[in-house]
Amino acid sequence: MKKNKSIQKEPFVRIVKRDNIKLPKIILIYSIAIVGGLLLSGLISVLFSEKGIGDFFQSLFTGAFGSERKFWLLLQDTSLLLGTSMALLPAFKMKFWNLGGNGQILVSCLSAIACMFYLGGKVSDSVIILLMFFASVIAGALWAVIPAIFKAKFNTNESLFTLMMNYIATGLVSLCITIWVKSGSGVLAPIAYGNIPEIGNKYLLPIILFVLITVFMYIYLRSAKHGYEISVVGESINTAKYVGIKVDKVIIRTMLLSGAIAGLVGFILAGSINHTISTASANNMGFTGIMATWLASFNPLLIMLTSFFITFISKGMVEVRKTFMFTNDSISNIVVGIVYFAIIICSFFINYKLVFRKKEKEEIKK
Amino acid sequence: MKKFSKVLALCLALVMVVGCLTACGEKTPDEPAAENIKVALICLHGDSSTYDKNFIDAFKLACENKGLTADDYTIVTDIPEDTACYDQAADLAETYDLIFADSFGHESHMIKAAQEFPEVEFCHATGTRAHTENLPNFHNAFASIYEGRYLAGVAAGMKLVELYGDDEGKVSDENAKIGYVGAFPYAEVISGYTSFYLGAKSIVENATMEVRYTNSWYDETAEKTTALALIDAGCKLISQHADSWGAPTACEEKNIPNVSYNGSTEEKAPNTFIIASRINWAPYFEYIIDCVQNDKAIDTDWTGTLATGSVEITALGAAAAEGTQDKLDEVKKGLQDGTIKVFDCSTFTVDGEELTSFIADVDDAGDYKPETEVVETENGITFVNESAKRSAPYFNVIIDGITAVTE
Description:
The structure holds 2 protein chains of 2 kinds. Chain A is mainly alpha-helical. Chain A contains 15 helices and 2 strands.
């Protein structure tokens, strides 16, 4: 050892894999990352305005929790993101990189709106809502299963395929609006028919629905045979084949489920929240959902936390923009980026640690 | 992992609750009404859209002119045209006295909020439904921007003559072709490009115009590629009704003169920018702030004009033809004293015939059925009286000389 040292100098810093990190340390690392990220974001915001860092944090929290309405909206939007993440989760567990969340939500939303548009006033609302439900779930599942079939049968690249399906969905929405809105304004006014009745208040339905879906997904992935098959396919396709799992079947079945859940998000957006559609109706959740899923390391319960956190930041930043008079969303995008980045970095520090070269003096003492 | 998630959940929840408490505790006390009012602006996009920037700048200016401090007004950007608009408006209505939304698709959601908060005033640009909704606190506004477009068209015609005119100022058919990037085949756009075309035609008699739509109000890539496609199709000058920098930058690249909208685009297109028309919203903002401050009723449907200062043309760009300013002054005077009418039926034909009657869909009941005659005669001129029956434009006929390609 000593001999070796005289020949080769120890590097100043080394990266060492941690063996078993304790829970308090994990929490500490995450807290430092989040608080650090927010502080840095706050400082950047302060740099571009006359307000102080206190205003930044106050607005951030006011935007999310400032009134009863804001709080309900926070929960509602969290639940939508949670629903989208649950749609993406089984595919990701299988290492099927489904980037088509937006498209799947959009086509299902469009199918539901089509039911409202064509049947509204002609048949009873309960019939319309039932049809909307099936139409959106089927549309979402169909949009997801097309790339899955190609992946299973021809081994096409699923990321590109699902991504392209998004553009087709956007085009379809644009086309339908052009046909439906005869004035040519490109804006479909909210449709009064086929609106899903409120339960309790208008925010509660999606919240309950998507929490239930999360519980279902937790059990499905953890305890069901299907869930086990998904994880085996995700780990190694060859192993899966060797133990007798029909990989094609698993890919197609899982994507049907994934698309169907995205379909539910579209159904809720159309029937319960917006009653109208635009090319931006998916609110980019197909991608934000990836973030929520990934940050939570594919754990359904943790995804509840990450979707809440992401929604909190985005709601909070709307208020920050208001307070700081930022008249575009560039600063919010920077802030959100910094916070995500901080969290991603900290996942590195949970798995690895930095070891610095010991000082000469200490060595002499030894 | 399970334990970890629980503890993490607990920690985060704690942070949030503490945040909530501090936030709730520092809620601003109820403002006394009367002179100290609070006003809010809701925008579809941020100031990177020329359309929204036009509102944002005017709003700030009007608030300052009316003595409102930064604490009295707020601007919320990037609010989509769905329930998020209602949520935002309703949230603002709890603390603000006057709320304005800038995009057509915000209207239904603003109406919903107006019904819920009768004590708050809701104003909306480009909307069509205020005059039929019968809500005392919901109002529409627009401006006779077709006059500004007409003036911009005159400047465009002058440029074509300068570039391609022979000794008598005649321009060959090939060189008299203008391209136009439109957003949607919607009355606001059609009225806008028709008035622009008529302005150019008043200088270059044989001018023709090709219109292509992007089917989006804001899509920088589509606007740019559409402008480039029009240039490739032989258009010698480009104008647009779309909200991004797409078309002006395409023109600058190809060195094709550009007539802009919503404000000057000279900073990014110094060599090709001729002129821009815009609606100056500051007079309307000042008017509504004044109304709320003094408890006066706001007009249900307000149309700004050249006289109110709502219709503006920018200073001419370096690329503008010589003598343009004098011509513009002359035409502007004519528009103001009524001797020139933009939609003068004797200056254009539809399917080869002069327009003698035009029934417009002024009452927007969602049925798309036109019901109001808008051709009128005044001072011996028979013309389509645009923006008179309601503030938002309703002229949506494709006149001869314009080809509109719906893609």
